[in-house]
Amino acid sequence: FSAAIAITEQPVSVSVPVGYSFTLRCRAEGRTSLQYQWFCQHQSVCRPIPGATKQDLPITAQQTQLYTCRINDLYKNAVFSDWVKVEVHQYVARGLPPQLWRGEPVIVVNPTEQRVEVGKPLQLQCAAMGIPAPSYQWYQNGNLLEHQKKKKLWITHAKVSDSGTYLCCASNSHGEHWTNAVDIHIGETLPPAEHLQLCRLVFPLATGKIALLVGNNRYQHHPNLMAPVTDVFELSLLLEQLDFQVVSLLD
């Protein structure tokens, strides 16, 4: 029965730059000597990691994956550790010297300013690196948003009251880091009557009288004409007096 093995230290999720080297740790106690086997899961395929049979699993981060450790004793009892996520950020290796980084949160994606129609979805996004992986808390106008504790803030149907200044705090045991503050504008769309008025204003301009004048002077099998440039100029003046919008092209 599994109570024969007690996990005393669970591995923890991390969020790191690509190429970063670190160690996942798992510790357990049992009545006999214990054996460890680490597993990883990527795109829903779970497999044992060859040779990963120690308490510590050294990793050089390449892609985001999930990990767990199985511990068994000599009586065929077995337990699995928590699944942990190793989140790998592909584009932030520059500008972060790993030897200086102690695992405190570093913001790598800031939310962006948005204008959203009433009733449409609002999505804000941020991301931070950290060891352990940071937890997130969003704020609107300085007020903590009780249920917005993920990297993505998601509001299915935006209301005017959702307008304001948003930011997010990423924190772990080493400290906290805040994203940039961004302004979000939630506005009404034009009612149908105003749409119609706008159309009446715009479409006469779009469907007004347009004249295209082309003055050719250089012909391949004909002598040059006397004055096509002058003709086009005089004709365009005449058409403009008749309220045409004139586009003139030469050769």
Automatic annotation (TrEMBL):
<dbReference type="Pfam" id="PF00656">
    <property type="entry name" value="Peptidase_C14"/>
</dbReference>
<dbReference type="InterPro" id="IPR007110">
    <property type="entry name" value="Ig-like_dom"/>
</dbReference>
<dbReference type="InterPro" id="IPR036179">
    <property type="entry name" value="Ig-like_dom_sf"/>
</dbReference>
<dbReference type="InterPro" id="IPR011600">
    <property type="entry name" value="Pept_C14_caspase"/>
</dbReference>
<dbReference type="Pfam" id="PF13927">
    <property type="entry name" value="Ig_3"/>
</dbReference>
<dbReference type="InterPro" id="IPR003598">
    <property type="entry name" value="Ig_sub2"/>
</dbReference>
<dbReference type="InterPro" id="IPR029030">
    <property type="entry name" value="Caspase-like_dom_sf"/>
</dbReference>
<dbReference type="InterPro" id="IPR052039">
    <property type="entry name" value="Caspase-related_regulators"/>
</dbReference>
<dbReference type="InterPro" id="IPR003599">
    <property type="entry name" value="Ig_sub"/>
</dbReference>
<keyword id="KW-1015">Disulfide bond</keyword>
<dbReference type="GO" id="GO:0004197">
    <property type="term" value="F:cysteine-type endopeptidase activity"/>
</dbReference>
<feature type="domain" description="Ig-like">
    <location>
        <begin position="5"/>
        <end position="81"/>
    </location>
</feature>
<dbReference type="GO" id="GO:0006508">
    <property type="term" value="P:proteolysis"/>
</dbReference>
<dbReference type="InterPro" id="IPR013783">
    <property type="entry name" value="Ig-like_fold"/>
</dbReference>
<keyword id="KW-0393">Immunoglobulin domain</keyword>
<protein>
    <submittedName>
        <fullName>Mucosa-associated lymphoid tissue lymphoma translocation protein 1</fullName>
    </submittedName>
</protein>
<feature type="domain" description="Ig-like">
    <location>
        <begin position="105"/>
        <end position="185"/>
    </location>
</feature>
